[in-house]
Amino acid sequence: MMPLPLRLAIVALALAALDLAGGGAAHAQGGDDAFRSQIATIQQDQLFTRSRYGRAVQERIEAASRALQEENRRIETDLEAEERLLTQQRQTLAPDAFRKLADAFDSKVEGIRAAQESKSRAMTRQAEEDRQRFFQTAAPILADMMGELGAVALLDKGSVILSLDVIDITDRAVARIDTVLGDGAVPGEAPVVPPAPEVTTGSGAAP
User: Fold this and answer.
1) Phi, psi dihedral angles at 94 (to 5 degrees)
2) Are 170 and 47 in contact (CB under 8 A)?
3) Entry pTM
4) pLDDT, average across residues 182-199
């Protein structure tokens, strides 16, 4: 636990920053609208997950993920059927002929697995890129809010040891971003799951 003197010192510094900005918490003359501080904090994760833009990104990624999972289950079912048929053919095929079919099937399975894993990695990259794009797009809005507050620094609240709630602007930032950016929709920006590799059953398993 942090020593009490250190806690008090940090609180004193925070209060001093508020005073330097023009009168402490300044609830007079307009309440929150009159609040000014040289230092403000924000909760980055909440900024993303609570905003309409962030929720829309998450919904698109989740929808694409569900589609990929359904596709994987369908492919698995088809491959199991093809494997059963290949096993049945073993009784009537010459060893060399069966080996060719079995090798072709194994190659197909490996190719499909690699393709599906590539799609999964692409969606993970897309999710991270969308998150980065959100913060890049929101940066000018946050900068405007800093100017309105007279703030010279905006810190992630998660990296601050101790702070006063009055300097947390997350709620106001979410509201402002929702007003300016909405859900951030751009035509054609939603993740697209490429078509699944074709899985055919029957004796045509060989290339």
Assistant:
1) -65, 150
2) yes
3) 0.67
4) 58
